[in-house]
Design goal:
Blueprint (H helix, E strand, L loop, with lengths): L1 H15 L3 E5 L3 E4 L13 E21 L7 E7 L2 E5 L8 E4 L4 E16 L11 E13 L2
Antiparallel strand pairs: 1-8, 2-8, 3-6, 3-7, 3-8, 4-5, 4-7
């Protein structure tokens, strides 16, 4: 009986196109190697996403800054090489949320890139050395 209910629930979620999706980087740390733009950290933290069927609408991004942040920073977000947004500046342990991304991912593979943009203060005397935390994307699977 439990199996039948589980299958029916999954079928209903798929039929209405309303089921939620979540992608996460997990906890990470990036050591910056950028010299030409010292307040923007390269390399980017990457998150590869594969949409197998239909489309996915990403609406929300949440960044929780690592506790090792010693200066303010904001996350610059790109999708498949094109910049699509950024968070507010945060300090160690704080979180920033972007609630209006409205990004539609079509079937196939996609690559999100995340870079931190620092600003003077704390240990930042003109260059970002490292950053980290956790980034989570949330959205819904669309039919079609």
């Amino acid at each position: 009986m439990a199996c039948v209910l589980a299958v029916a629930w999954l079928g209903a979620a798929s039929a209405t196109g309303k089921h939620r999706v979540r992608y996460s980087t997990g906890e990470f740390v990036v050591n910056c190697t950028s010299d030409s733009t010292p307040q923007i950290c390269d390399p980017p933290k990457k998150l590869k996403v594969r949409v197998r069927h239909g489309k996915v609408r990403i609406k929300r991004l949440r960044y929780v800054a690592g506790t090792q942040h010693c200066s303010p920073g904001r996350v610059l977000v790109s999708l498949d090489g094109e910049r699509i947004g950024h968070t507010d500046y945060v300090n160690a342990g704080e979180r920033a949320t972007v609630d209006d991304l409205k990004v539609t991912l079509h079937r196939g593979r996609h690559k999100f890139g995340f870079r931190i943009q620092g600003k003077m203060g704390g240990c930042n005397a003109g260059q970002v050395v490292s950053w980290g935390g956790k980034i989570t994307l949330r959205g819904r699977k669309l039919s079609g």
